[in-house]
Write a structure and sequence with these properties.
Order of helices and strands: EHHEEEEHEHEEEE
Low-confidence stretches: none
Mean pLDDT: 94
Number of strands: 10
Helix content: 10-25%
Number of domains: 2
Structural class: alpha+beta
Radius of gyration: 18 Å
Length: 245
C-alpha cells in the first residue's frame, strides 16, 4: 500500500538562494509543491489527472510559519500528507525540518477544477476511495475562517513583470511565482524580504498574456504586526491577497 504521507529530502542548491546564501521564498514553496505533486501522483491524483481527466488541483489558501530560514547546502526534508477531502476541497499539511529542527509548518486548501471550464468539480469517488488521509494535528484547523486584514490607502504599488518561466502546465502563473512577486515587492518597499509568517488567499489565476501585475504592500505593519498585501491588475482585478509578519 502506498504511504499516507510522503517525505522528500533535498539539499538547498546555489540556484535557490539569494545574495546572502539564504533560500529564496519561492524556492522554499517549490519544494512543498514538489512534495505534494509526488504524493498525489502515487495515487494518480496529481499531474497525471491533467491529461487523463482534464482536471487538476489548484491552490486556494495557505498559511505558513517559517521558524528558520535555510541556507545554501542545508540538508532538509519536506513532509506532506492529506488531512481530508470534502466535496471539491482538499486539505494538505506540510512540515519541513533541518535535522530535528523545525523549519516550516503550513496548512493549505486546494480546489478540484475542470481545466477546460474552470468550474469546481467534486473529487471523483475512485480518488476518494484510494487517497489516504492522516489524522495528525493540523497546523491551521481554522484555515478557511482566518481573516485577511484590509490594505491601507497608503500602500504603494510595485509593478512587476510576468515571465515565461512563471507559467506552468495549467497554463497560468504557478502559485510559487506569487511568492517571488511578493518577495520582490517586500524588498522594493524596504521591508524585510524573509517573513516569519505568511497567509495568502488566491482569488483567480494570472493568465499567460498578462505582461505585469501590481503588488501593493502596506508601508507599516498594522496593530497585529501584519503587513497586508494584494497582487492585482488595476483597476479591479484581484489575483491574491494576504499578509506577512
Amino acid at each position: 500500500m502506498s504511504p499516507a504521507s510522503l517525505t522528500l529530502p533535498f539539499n538547498v542548491p546555489y540556484a535557490d538562494v539569494d545574495r546572502d546564501e539564504i533560500i529564496l521564498l519561492p524556492s522554499l514553496f517549490k519544494w512543498l509543491q514538489e512534495a505534494a505533486i509526488r504524493h498525489a501522483n502515487l495515487f494518480d491524483a496529481g499531474t497525471r489527472m491533467m491529461t487523463g481527466r482534464g482536471e487538476s488541483w489548484v491552490l486556494n489558501r495557505l498559511s505558513a510559519k517559517i521558524f528558520q530560514w535555510p541556507r545554501f547546502e542545508d540538508t532538509l526534508r519536506a513532509e506532506t500528507w492529506s488531512s481530508g477531502i470534502r466535496g471539491f476541497r482538499g486539505y494538505r499539511e506540510f512540515r519541513v525540518f533541518n535535522g530535528d529542527t523545525p523549519v516550516l509548518a503550513a496548512s493549505s486548501l486546494w480546489l478540484y477544477v475542470n481545466l477546460e471550464t474552470k468550474a469546481l468539480t467534486r473529487v471523483p469517488p475512485e480518488i476518494l476511495d484510494t487517497f489516504p488521509t492522516r489524522a495528525d494535528p493540523v497546523f491551521r484547523p481554522d484555515l478557511e475562517r482566518l481573516p485577511l486584514p484590509p490594505l491601507s490607502e497608503q500602500a504603494a504599488a510595485a509593478e512587476i513583470s510576468i515571465r515565461y518561466s512563471d507559467m506552468d502546465a495549467n497554463r497560468h502563473v504557478n502559485n510559487t511565482a506569487y511568492f517571488d512577486l511578493l518577495q520582490t515587492a517586500l524588498a522594493r518597499a524596504g521591508h524585510p524580504p524573509r517573513p516569519s509568517e505568511i497567509q495568502i488567499k488566491f482569488a483567480r489565476e494570472i493568465p499567460p498574456e498578462t505582461p505585469a501585475v501590481a503588488v501593493r504592500v502596506d508601508p507599516v505593519p498594522n496593530a497585529a504586526g501584519q503587513l497586508p498585501f494584494r497582487i492585482e491588475l488595476p483597476p479591479d482585478t484581484l489575483f491574491a491577497s494576504g499578509f506577512v509578519a
